């Protein structure tokens, strides 16, 4: 037997799914509905006034800030691990980048350690 949800319940679920920054799976779990059900509700209500432009702008800004925060944390981690490398010669920096290429984006590590990606390519060959 299917459980009927009120329109208000659906609207709340859609609003939170679109603005909270949580994954759809988390929102569906929190509301006790299936992921496919939540996705259907979002599809139906996406272009309605369930979520105000102000809320959408805030959600976009939050997402931008989360992304920036994630990048800053990664850069801080690189600096912590590569502290001694910064005082050493460039070849030492390049070795550090090669050793950590699976953990970090090479371009980001090059930027943090102040070496060029072109120099890294030359070091590799």
Describe this structure in words.
This protein folds into two domains: 7-51, Arc Repressor Mutant, subunit A (Orthogonal Bundle), CATH 1.10.10; 69-124. The termini are far apart. The protein has helices spanning 7-19, 24-31, 35-45, 53-81, 83-87, 90-99, 106-113, 117-124. The mean pLDDT is 85. Helix 1 packs across helix 3, helix 2 crosses helix 3 (35-45) and helix 6 packs antiparallel against helix 7 (106-113). The chain is 74% helix and 0% strand. It is an all-alpha fold and 125 residues long.
Q: What is the count of β-strands?
A: 0
Helix content: over 70%
Number of domains: 2
- Head-to-tail CA distance between termini: 66 Å
* Sheet/helix structural class: mainly alpha
Number of helices: 8
Beta fraction? under 5%
Q: Uncertain segments of ≥5 residues (pLDDT<50)?
A: none
Which value, in Å, is the CA radius of gyration?
A: 23 Å
Largest sheet: none
Give the rounded overall mean pLDDT. Answer: 85
Shape: elongated
* Helix-strand sequence: HHHHHHHH
Would you summarize the structure shown here?
By secondary structure, this protein is mostly helical.
């Amino acid at each position: 037997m299917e459980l009927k949800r009120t329109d208000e319940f659906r609207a709340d679920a859609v609003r939170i799914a679109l603005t909270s920054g949580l994954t759809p799976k988390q929102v569906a779990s929190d509301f006790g509905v299936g992921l496919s059900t939540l996705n259907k509700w979002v599809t139906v209500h996406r272009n309605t006034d369930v979520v105000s432009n102000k809320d959408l702008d805030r959600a976009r800004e939050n997402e931008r800030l989360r992304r920036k925060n994630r990048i800053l944390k990664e850069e801080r981690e690189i600096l912590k691990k590569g502290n001694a490398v910064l005082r050493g010669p460039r070849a030492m920096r390049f070795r550090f980048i090669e050793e950590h290429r699976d953990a970090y984006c090479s371009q980001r590590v090059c930027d943090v350690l102040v070496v060029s990606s072109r120099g890294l390519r030359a070091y590799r060959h």
